[in-house]
# Entry
Amino acid sequence: MMNHLLARTGLRVAARSMQRTQRRKMGDGPYTDKMHVKPNKFVEEWNGRREITEMAFEVNPSNLGAIAFCCVLFPYGIYHFTRKELMMKGDPRYKNSGLA
# Structure
């Protein structure tokens, strides 16, 4: 009986220790110092440029058309043609929406 009780207690302790969450290295990534990983200068440069994109971006007449197309005209075109198709087919999603 005592052996059984000790065995159950040992299993509980083992189960608790197995439920620990995984430790993660926050800024270092998955590599340790033993792996001798060398940073790639091209990747580091790309990462730096990506971080400051919003500060370096400017709207001027040469790129205003592309911005308007990507942010306004293209999404509205998808909405318009999808709605038109739903209306033409008599789709229940359009009929039940209260717009028909």
Summary: Helices lie at 2-18, 41-51, 53-56, 61-89, 92-95. The longest helix spans residues 61-89.
